[in-house]
Amino acid sequence: MIDDTIFLTRHYVMPTYGRFPIRLARGAGCRVWDEDGREYLDFGAGIAVCSVGHSHPRVTAALAQQAGILVHTSNLYYTHGQATLARRLVDAVGIPGRIFFCNSGAEANEGLFKLARRFGHARADGRHEVLTFEGSFHGRTLAGISATGQEKVKTGFAPLVPGFRHVPFRDLDAVRAAISPATAAILVEPVQGEGGIHAAGAEFLRGLRVLCDEHQLLLLFDEVQCGLGRTGDWCGWKSLGCPEVEPDGISWAKGIAGGFPLGAFFVRETPVPLPDGGGTPLPELLGPGSHGTTYGGNPLACAAAHAVLDIIEEEHLLENARRIGEETLAILRALDSPWITGVRGVGLMLGIELNPDIQNALPSEERRTTASLAMVERLNGLGLLSIPAGANVIRWLPPLNVTREDVRLAVSLLETALQV
Ligand SMILES: Cc1ncc(COP(=O)(O)O)c(C=O)c1O
Q: Which atom in ligand 1 lies closest to the alpha carbon of residue 107?
């Protein structure tokens, strides 16, 4: 009987993913190994998920211990780990609010969309629309692709969920012009990840807050990729130099539990003032029976998240993400390669932009649909895992405990890959 991983996957798993021909079997820290024992430096970290590296002994111990006590209950009952995790997340945001736990980034955003709809209904003025941005990514559910500002995710899925419009990113005048009597909320990634590592910038986020206040709209941050440490701060937007900007809602997933599936969203306690001077506290818009999910915030997921947050705090990983991120940017900027047209990033969310002509310089068998894909494959072959973003950007999203030595190795592998 054929037992090969790739053979079985190709025959029995839905073909939704374009996969690299690597069979991963094991991980430790910033490294993973394939089934043949070949080692890779992992600068993708499961797409910004494994924030404390692979198989961190404290996460492993927390999961094993909790698995022996209570794996799952349901949200019909109270569990201490969920309650204390919610308090920790609210404290990390620094604004009074409440948390809803779910299982993924798309599901966290769905919760924010439902909040926006309820907000519109509470105003009774027909507001329901959410403005999002060109180049954004908000998940693969039907509402997620409707919210996403990239055509490629929508192809073939019409009719989409109504009530989303995309506006040019970082263009405040365009946002001002786009706000209509139907607009209820603005959803923005403080740092666009899938779109190619583009920071919104402090002025833009401040301007969005002012517009939302003027028009009594909700300001929602999608921090699924940039949140909870990735940029060197618990809050991605605070790394951009505007800690005073207060969102009304935030979505998270990815790094929150280091690889155990968990998502969450934050809702600010304070009511958004309404034209008549009143206003319902936002969390009450999603009262009992309005929203739910079976697994959300179960004891096992919350134990993993507590362990991850403990490690980030006790091993000073926010500082490490900031320091190593800045050093890596400086090293990358100093590289003398005609094929690099730009380097950008915040903390350990880094983007290396390639000259698309590099494809023409590659041997024909190495050419792919995009330059980023071709170069990521080249790097895979050299033992460095990274993630393509858009046609020309390579993303580096290493674990937050990555070392200077790991970065030096990654950069030297990149230099080798660029020699075409
Ligand atoms: C900013 C952002 N939002 C939402 C999502 C969707 O998250 P998930 O894949 O966990 O549903 C992603 C995933 O890449 C993301 O980067």
A: 11
Q: Is the CB of 259 under 6 A from ligand 1?
A: no
Q: What is the pLDDT along the chain (420 residues), one digit of tens a residue?
A: 899 999 999 999 999 999 999 999 999 999 999 999 999 999 999 999 999 999 999 999 999 999 999 999 999 999 999 999 999 999 999 999 999 999 999 999 999 999 999 999 988 888 999 999 999 999 999 999 999 999 999 999 999 999 999 999 999 999 999 999 999 999 999 999 999 999 999 999 999 999 999 999 999 999 999 999 999 999 999 999 999 999 999 999 999 999 999 999 999 998 776 767 777 789 999 999 999 999 999 999 999 999 999 999 999 999 999 999 999 999 999 999 999 999 999 999 999 999 999 999 999 999 999 999 999 999 999 999 999 999 999 999 999 999 999 999 999 999 999 999
Nearest CA to ligand 1 atom 8: 105
- Predicted model pTM: 0.98
Strand partners, 191: 199
- The torsion angles phi and psi of 234, rounded to 5 degrees, stand at -60, -35
Angle at 34 between CA 30 and CA 38, to 5 degrees: 80
> Which residue's CA is minimally distant from atom 4 of ligand 1?
138
How many CB atoms lie under 10 A from the CB of residue 382? Answer: 14
Tell me how far the alpha carbon of residue 253 lies from the centroid of ligand 1, in angstroms.
Answer: 7
Look up residue 297 and give its two tokens: 């915030």
Q: Does 236 sit in the ligand 1 pocket, CB within 6 Å?
A: no
Q: Give all domains of the chain, ordered by start, each with its CATH number.
A: 5-54+317-417 (3.90.1150.10), 70-314 (3.40.640.10)
Could you tell me the two tokens for 348? Answer: 């350990």
- Of 172, 116, 102, 113, whose CA–CA distance to 148 is shortest? 113
